[in-house]
Automatic annotation (TrEMBL):
Signal peptide: none annotated. This is RING-type E3 ubiquitin transferase. GO terms for biological process: protein ubiquitination. It is an enzyme of class 2 (transferase). The lineage of its organism: Eukaryota, Viridiplantae, Streptophyta, Embryophyta, Tracheophyta. One of its GO terms (molecular function) is ubiquitin protein ligase activity. Residues 31-40 have a biased composition (Low complexity). Pathway: Protein modification; protein ubiquitination.
Length: 366
């Protein structure tokens, strides 16, 4: 007895073919012959196109499938027919992975909190003398046409003296040191108290600027050496001996105003003065003067509802008494300034960043 391996293999091959191949069409048995069958007609003939079909789109691989699109190609088991459909593309009826009308919310970064702005009240100091910096100019000395003299308008509540320096440097403890004492000796000129006085340097005490370069005159030198420095110092008031026994002696530190400027030439080759800064020394404390825009018409006692220039720009009802630094706009009342510093750090007038708020109480008598 022998075993035919060929017949066994043939049966195995037939079984495999039946498993993987598509089933045959059912035969239609006629009454005339049991062996004859009817087959489907061939596809209608279509003429060839002049151009070949475009290549199919590349497959899109995604780990997400819609729930109604599962087929045998959705499974990773190779026995479920995955090799028969390698280019299967999942079907998405909606663009958001099967969810209707749902879009991810855009990411909105939280608004940063405004930086802390210091709010403090200004300290009131009384200056005994003030030089109007917009009136400062140089005049030709009639007695010596090659030299120039300094002139300006000033207000003085006390008596004192002016000292004119050229190329001087400010040092601690209210000291001014000339850089070239051998070229020009500082001139000291006394003044009386009064408002709106005009000062002019005495003749033959000026200086010849032709010895200096234009670049040296038009800007401060290294170490804050200014070409022109005017020191206005007030004398300490006389105190009787009887009052000294009752009250403590006043401070012996001088009160002075220092004006530092540069000298420039215009198109007509004439000299004019440009003030860089003004400094106050009061009771040994140094203050740098800065203009406050809008402080001239902000006194609370003279405030009227029909004057919009004196009202706070935010509430429009209270008088303005708070200045913004560094832009120096006095435009708000103290209550609105307290609220503004918690919400924003921009000036209501110029929109520059606010570094500090200063509350300035102004009396009408001042």
């Amino acid at each position: 007895m022998g075993i035919s391996w060929s017949s066994t293999n043939r049966r195995r091959n037939n079984n495999n073919n039946n498993y993987y191949q598509n089933p045959h069409h059912n035969s239609l048995i006629t009454s005339s012959s049991s062996s004859s069958s009817y087959s489907y007609p061939p596809d209608p003939y279509s003429p060839p196109l002049p151009h070949p079909y475009p290549p199919p789109p590349p497959p899109i691989y995604s780990p997400y499938y819609y729930s109604n699109a599962y087929t045998t190609c959705n499974y990773s088991n190779p026995m479920m027919g995955r090799p028969n459909c390698p280019n299967f593309t999942p079907y998405y009826p909606f663009p958001n992975n099967g969810w209707v009308g749902i879009r991810p919310a855009p990411f909105m970064a939280p608004a940063p909190a405004p930086p802390y702005v210091d709010h403090q009240q200004a300290k009131k100091v009384r200056n005994g003398v003030n030089v109007h910096k917009d009136t400062l100019k140089l005049e030709v000395d009639e007695m010596n046409p090659d030299h120039h003299l300094v002139s300006f308008v000033f207000d003085a509540l006390l008596e004192g003296c002016f000292t004119i320096f050229y190329f001087a440097k400010e040092e601690p403890n209210c000291r001014l040191v000339p850089l070239f004492p051998e070229v020009y000796i500082p001139v000291k000129v006394p003044f009386q108290k009064g408002l709106g006085q005009r000062f002019r340097q005495p003749s033959r005490t000026g200086i010849d600027f032709s010895f200096f370069e234009s670049d040296d005159l038009s800007k401060p030198s290294s170490g804050d050496v200014f070409p022109l420095v005017i020191c206005a110092e007030t004398y300490l008031p006389y105190v009787p001996i009887e009052e000294c026994l009752v009250d403590p002696l006043p401070s012996s530190s001088p009160n002075m105003q220092i004006t530092e400027a540069v000298i420039e030439k215009n198109d007509e080759n004439t000299l004019h003065v440009r003030v860089i800064r003004q400094i106050l020394w009061i009771d040994g404390v140094r203050y740098e003067l800065r203009e406050i825009y809008g402080i001239g018409n902000s006194a609370a006692e003279s405030f009227k509802d029909d004057d919009p220039g004196k009202a706070c720009v935010i509430c429009m009802t209270e008088p303005k008494d708070t200045a913004v630094l560094p832009c120096r706009h006095m435009c708000m009342c103290s209550e609105c300034a307290q609220e503004l510093r918690l919400q924003s750090n921009k000036c209501p007038i110029c929109r520059q960043p606010i570094e500090e708020l200063i509350e300035i109480k102004i009396d009408s008598v001042d």
